[in-house]
Structures are given as C-alpha cells and as structure tokens.
C-alpha cells in the first residue's frame, strides 16, 4: 500500500477511534445525570459532572490510545484537545455538537485555516469559537526591515550611520541598544530620525505592542504630530490586527508629502477591507490612484477590487438550510472534502441506527441514534461556520493581494 494511503488510513482511523470513545463511553454522563436526579442529589455531590465524565474519557483516549496509532492530528489543537476545551466551557450537548463538527472538518480544506508550527510541524489552526487565536500562534514568514544609510559629514552622522548599518544587517537588538546609548550620552542626537530608527527596530523584532506603548506614554508631542512617525505607528497597529486604531492614527496624518500620503491612503483602504467595510475600502483604494505614478500598480489595485466585487460573500442561512442534506452546506461553502466526510459519517451513523432498530437492538439503536443526531447537528453547525471561513478567506485573499501589490510586508 502506498505511504500516502497508509497515512490517510491512519488519520481516518484516529477520527473513528475518537468518535467511538466519545460515543460509547460518554453515555455514562447521561446515566450519572439521571441517577443524580432520581436520588435528588446535585450532580456536584457525586464527584464529577457529565462534562467531567466526557473529559475523563477523552483523557483516557489521549493517554492510552492516541499515542499508539502512529500518526498525528492535522489540526491545532488536536480533535481530542478541542473536545476537552468544548466540554470544559460548554454544556454537554453543545460540546458534543462542536466536537462532532470538528471531527467532520479535521484535516480538510486546508486553505481556509491559518498555519502554525507550534508543535514543530505544520498544523491547521482551528480553536473553538469562544477562544481567540493568539497572534503569535500564526505562522508568518520572516520579513526584514531596512533603512536608508545617511551620508556622513560629521561625527554625529557617523554615529547614526552605525545604527543604520546594524538595522540593515538585521541586528535589531544591537541597534536598539546603540540607540539607547546615543540618547543617554548624546541627548542632542535624540531627534525624530533616531526615534524612527527605534521604531524600525521594534518592527523588525515583532515587538509592535511595546513600540505602541512607548509612543503613547513616553514620546513628546513633537513625535506624536510627525507624519512619518504616525505612519509607522499605524503600520504597527495594522500588523497586530488593530485596524480601527490604525485608521484613527492615519486620519491624524496631515503631511503633503506624496509618498506618505500614498502609503497612508493604501493602509487605510486595506484596513477598511480587513474590517469588512468593502464599500469604503473600494472608494479609498480608488483614491490612491491620484498619488501613484506607476500606472501598472494602479491597474493591479483596481483589478483586485474588481475581482473581489465579482465574488459575492456567502450567506450562513443558505448553508444551514442546505445542510438538511448532510454535506450540501459544505458544498455551498466550497469545502468539498468536509462535505464528503459529513455525508459519509452521517450516512454511516444513520445506517447503524436503522440496522439496530431493524434487528430490535433498541439499546444500541438509542445510542447510535443519539450520536447520529449529534453529528447531523454538527454538520449544520459546521456549514454555518463554514460561510464565515469562506467570507474571511475572500477578504484575506484580496487584502494580501493588495499588500503584495503595494509592497506592504
């Protein structure tokens, strides 16, 4: 058997094993809840709640079964870790549906998920909806910051030139140390240009929050009104995903310099797009044409906007209605692999329920029927969430194309 097929088999085996663990063992959670209600005792007095039982069984799977299968989950966190988070924070039924939704989607349609190397190998980020994805978790290729080397006419110029050399050689920590040394021993050099070098160092080190705090708290008004500095601070707000504050900073720029005006207009347009305000973003990008001399760049920007308008966003209610047929909602969301998994899993569970009833094995039929409904609901929930992933990717693709076209990194 080819190695790719072996890995796919192992991955599917993992999901089936986890489904079996949850479906079979977590039924005791219902039993405990019923027992507690019959003897009129709060569930807490019995030692652990229904969700606690489900979490215990997932821990059992992680400890004794997961490590023996010889492969690894394609998602971060893994399906079992995702289930633990869901059962710890959500009611039992909701947690079951969320876990079922995750297992249907696991490892499929990777273009809709961000990438991380948190475990040392590439994984697709998919945290529960009640958890925010940390910015540092998302993989981003290293970008290098450079600056112009000043023409040295005197000693102060040479000192600043050394800082520029360190930055251009990507020694940002050393450059920061040299900037602090110059500001302490030569306060007359602590001007706008030196502070800009400091911001570039923070940018190269991905320490945007620290730079923003320093700007807001410690810098004089002369720096807070400087258009070049404001543009750099706006870039940092943009990099950390705070697009509203990036726009607020950009609106303070009053420079008549053509390059600064052009860059601030582009950043504002892409920030509006990231916020989902497509109409204002389109208008803003069109305005940048007045400041750009490169006609090819203007054409590329307008083509990106045109392409985005030609691809309308998906509607979640349509995906939900279509999901009456398992997998149809995912097809609408253009996530075919998840659609196929939803159809196969729901079909298998429905068939198991049907055959159990036909054989008059009503105990198994009740269990399989419960989880058939759970995965059916997970299929609907997943398709509704899939529209959000589709729409977000649609916006992200256009924004990234604009960033690349305008050399924003």
Mean pLDDT: 83
Q: Termini, distance in Å?
A: 44 Å
Largest sheet: 3 strands, mixed
SS-derived structural category: mainly alpha
Question: What would you say this structure looks like, in words?
Answer:
The protein has 409 residues and is mostly helical. It has helices spanning 3-25, 27-38, 50-65, 79-89, 92-105, 155-168, 172-185, 192-204, 208-218, 221-224, 227-239, 243-250, 258-274, 278-288, 295-309, 316-322, 328-332, 336-358, 362-405; strands at 75-76, 115-116, 123-125. It has a 3-stranded mixed β-sheet with strand order 1-3-2, with no helix packed on it. A hairpin with a 6-residue loop joins β2 (115-116) and β3 (123-125). Mean pLDDT is 83; it is low at 1-10 and 24-50.
Task: Give the gist of this structure.
The protein has 409 residues and is mainly alpha-helical.
Task: Name the descriptors.
mainly alpha, 19 helices, 409 residues
What's the structural blueprint in terms of helices and strands?
Elements (H helix, E strand, L loop, with lengths): L2 H23 L1 H12 L11 H16 L9 E2 L2 H11 L2 H14 L9 E2 L6 E3 L29 H14 L3 H14 L6 H13 L3 H11 L2 H4 L2 H13 L3 H8 L7 H17 L3 H11 L6 H15 L6 H7 L5 H5 L3 H23 L3 H44 L4
Parallel strand pairs: 1-3
Antiparallel strand pairs: 2-3
Helix pairs in contact: 1-3, 2-3, 3-4, 4-5, 5-19, 6-7, 6-8, 7-8, 8-11, 9-11, 11-12, 11-13, 12-13, 13-14, 13-19, 14-15, 15-19, 16-19, 18-19
């Amino acid at each position: 058997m080819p190695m790719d097929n072996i890995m796919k088999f192992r991955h599917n085996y993992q999901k089936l094993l986890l489904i079996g663990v949850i479906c079979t063992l977590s039924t005791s959670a219902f039993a405990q809840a019923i027992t507690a209600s019959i003897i009129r005792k709060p569930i807490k007095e019995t030692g652990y709640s229904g969700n606690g039982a489900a979490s215990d069984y997932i821990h059992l799977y992680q400890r004794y079964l997961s490590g023996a299968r010889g492969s690894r989950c394609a998602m971060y966190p893994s399906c079992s870790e995702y289930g633990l988070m869901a059962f710890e924070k959500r009611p039992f039924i909701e947690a079951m549906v969320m876990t079922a939704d995750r297992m249907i989607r696991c490892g499929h349609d990777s273009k809709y998920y961000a990438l991380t190397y948190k475990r040392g190998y590439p994984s697709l980020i998919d945290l529960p909806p009640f958890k925010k994805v940390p910015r540092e978790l998302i993989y981003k290729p290293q970008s290098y910051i450079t600056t112009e080397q000043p023409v040295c006419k005197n000693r102060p110029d040479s000192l600043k030139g050394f800082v520029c050399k360190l930055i251009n050689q990507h020694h940002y920590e050393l450059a920061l140390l040299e900037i602090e040394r110059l500001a302490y021993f030569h306060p007359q050099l602590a001007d706008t240009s030196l502070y800009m070098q400091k911001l570039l160092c923070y940018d190269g080190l991905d320490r945007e929050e620290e730079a923003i705090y320093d700007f807001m708290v410690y810098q004089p008004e002369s720096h807070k009104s400087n258009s070049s500095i404001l543009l750099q601070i706006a870039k940092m707000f943009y990099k950390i995903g705070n697009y509203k504050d990036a726009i607020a900073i950009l609106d303070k720029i009053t420079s008549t310099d053509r390059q600064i005006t052009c860059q601030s207009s582009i950043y504002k347009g892409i920030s509006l797009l990231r916020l989902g305000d497509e109409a204002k973003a389109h208008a803003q990008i069109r305005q940048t044409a007045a400041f750009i001399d490169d006609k090819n760049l203007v054409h590329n920007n307008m083509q990106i906007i045109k392409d985005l308008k030609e691809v309308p966003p998906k509607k979640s209610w349509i995906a939900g209605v279509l999901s009456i047929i398992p997998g149809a909602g995912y097809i609408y969301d253009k996530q075919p692999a998840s659609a196929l998994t939803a159809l196969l899993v729901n079909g298998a569970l429905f068939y198991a329920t049907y055959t159990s009833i036909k054989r008059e094995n009503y105990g198994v039929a009740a269990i399989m029927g419960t989880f058939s409904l759970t995965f059916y609901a997970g299929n609907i929930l997943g398709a509704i969430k899939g529209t959000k992933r589709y729409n977000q990717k649609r916006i992200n693709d256009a924004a990234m194309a604009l960033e690349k076209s305008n050399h924003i990194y």
